[in-house]
Specification:
single chain; 414 residues; mainly alpha; two-stranded antiparallel sheet; 14 helices; globular
């Protein structure tokens, strides 16, 4: 096998070294994220902060998560960068009057309206990782984030989370969404691994049960948007299909990402009981295979399309970097968990596409959005906002699929 090919193959030393190089490049790329108050600037094409954009809580949380893991990897400066992000989450992004965290801050430092489940899930993820990294104040932040989330977003009766409140937590929006619940599963699993609170793993399983039920009744394409009574709204945003957070139709990247999280939950819940977790692994395979069948090379060019209609036809043909990152993660995990060769083959295909098309070999990091001809565009994701998806894709393929990535890296489980 040629050297170039081995760089893309799962479980080769060449691939592991390639990922190590990518990881270090990403960590170096993100060093300029902190604002003076700790909230994260949105990063531009070369890692220079775009200070004319809002400073978002979810981006700040993601960068705190990344550099908390960076402390385990020995990346120089990670401790200070993780602490900077924590400063923002404990300080200027926190609503001391009404509780919780603002969606973000304007360039003038004024709070953005509304309280987002999505952002609060990332605060839990960030504080879980920072706690594992031993950062000062992280445990208190994690406990506060969980308490607030339990109070405002988690619905014990439904076994699901709501989506958006007004800033004062007095008016709850009628919209319900799967994206915020997906990152809630990620956050709950991280909190369970960090604190040993298994009730959060159990809650993650309740969300997963809903998603599997909805997808299995819909040819394994996950409905993304719902009414307040959790009735699927399959026509949501049909008139603006490329919406940044609420696109119309099925999102193959989310099918892929759910497949990974379901696998993690099943392995961590059933542990030695392979039979008990088998139906969940099968569901994960169904989600992954449907998403790849619909989205990968769907229009004659390499890449995974952003969205499809409910028959699997591409709607938004753009390729988002996060989708590729999740495809790398999930194909690697399914290869290791099932032993099926085709998942390793997919991984190699995705790696080659990453290297030849999505990596920015000149300015660093990954191009965040490409069009159907694989030309860089920025209509949905200009610049290179944060490191989270790309960074995790350099780690998850080789760490225990049963453990959240920060805990896995800390424990050295591979």
């Amino acid at each position: 096998m040629r050297e170039k090919q081995r760089k893309y193959q799962i479980d080769t030393k060449e691939n592991k070294e390639f990922l190590r190089e990518l990881r270090e490049d990403l960590l170096n790329f993100g060093h300029q994220f902190p604002s003076p108050g700790g909230s994260s600037y949105y990063l531009g094409d070369d890692g220079t902060p775009w200070k004319d954009r809002n400073r978002e809580t979810w981006i700040t949380s993601r960068m705190t998560h990344v550099y908390s893991i960076g402390t385990f990897l020995g990346h120089e400066g990670s401790e200070e960068l993780a602490d900077a992000g924590l400063k923002g989450l404990k300080g200027e992004l926190r609503d001391r009057a009404h509780g919780g965290w603002y969606a973000g801050l304007t360039t003038e430092g004024k709070p953005l309206p509304n309280k987002q489940c999505y952002a609060h899930a990332f605060v839990i993820l960030a504080s879980s990782s920072a706690f594992l990294a031993g950062r000062e104040g992280a445990k208190e932040l994690l406990e506060e984030a969980l308490k607030l989330y339990d109070l405002r977003f988690w619905n014990e009766e439904e076994g699901l989370a709501c989506d958006t409140w007004n800033t004062e937590f007095t008016v709850l929006d009628d919209y319900r969404g799967v994206n915020a619940n997906m990152h809630t599963v990620e956050a709950f699993l991280a909190a369970a691994d960090a604190l040993g609170k298994e009730e959060y793993r159990e809650r993650a399983g309740r969300i997963i049960a809903h998603v599997i039920s909805w997808a299995s009744q819909n040819q394994w394409r996950i409905p993304e948007h719902f009414t307040k009574d959790w009735i699927p709204d399959l026509e949501c945003n049909k008139d603006q299909p490329a919406d940044q957070f609420k696109p119309y139709g099925a999102t193959p990247g989310h099918g892929i990402e759910w497949a990974r999280l379901i696998t993690q939950w099943a392995l961590s819940t059933y542990k030695e009981d392979a039979k008990g977790g088998a139906k969940y692994i099968e569901a994960a395979e169904n989600l992954f295979n449907r998403a790849v069948e619909d989205g990968w090379n769907a229009d004659g060019a390499p890449g995974i399309v952003y969205t499809t209609d409910w028959e699997g036809r591409p709607v938004v043909h753009d390729r988002m970097h996060w989708t590729l990152a999740e495809a790398l993660n999930t194909s690697a995990i399914l290869h290791h968990v099932t032993g099926k060769v085709r998942y390793g083959d997919y991984y190699a295909e995705f790696m080659e596409y990453l290297d030849e098309t999505v990596l920015d070999h000149e300015k660093g990091s990954w191009f965040h959005q490409l069009d159907e001809h694989n030309q860089v565009i920025g209509t949905v994701w200009p610049g290179k906002s944060d490191l989270y998806h790309a960074f995790q894709a350099t780690l998850i393929p080789y760490y225990s699929p049963a453990v959240s990535i920060a805990a896995a890296v800390k424990r050295g489980k591979k």
